[in-house]
Amino acid sequence: MDVSIYENHQKAVLHYTYFLVGKKELAEDLTHDTFVKAYKNPKQIGTLEGQRAWLFTIARNTVYD
Q1: φ and ψ at residue 21, rounded to 5 degrees
Q2: Using an 8 Å Cβ cutoff, are 27 and 17 in contact?
Q3: What is the spatial distance between Cα 25 and Cα 49, in angstroms, rounded to a whole number?
Q4: pLDDT digits (tens, 9 = 90+) for 17-63
Q5: In the chain, what's the furthest Cα-to-Cα distance?
Q6: Is the pTM here over 0.90, yes or no?
Q7: Collapsing DSSP states into helix, strand and coil, what is residue 37?
Q8: Which DSSP state fits 23?
């Protein structure tokens, strides 16, 4: 997995986590945690088209955890 996944999707994941929690600092922490989890499981990324959905799933699960 390369850095471009972060560059391409960080803002969208941040907006999504902010939508879910309503607090900027918490959303930033959850976004960071989302990408840490994603980078630990690079084989699960799938296709380029599925990257955002995969990251949003990780983000949602991170928020609920």
Answers
A1: -110, -25
A2: yes
A3: 29
A4: 999 999 999 999 999 999 999 888 876 666 666 788 899 999 999 99
A5: 31
A6: no
A7: helix
A8: -
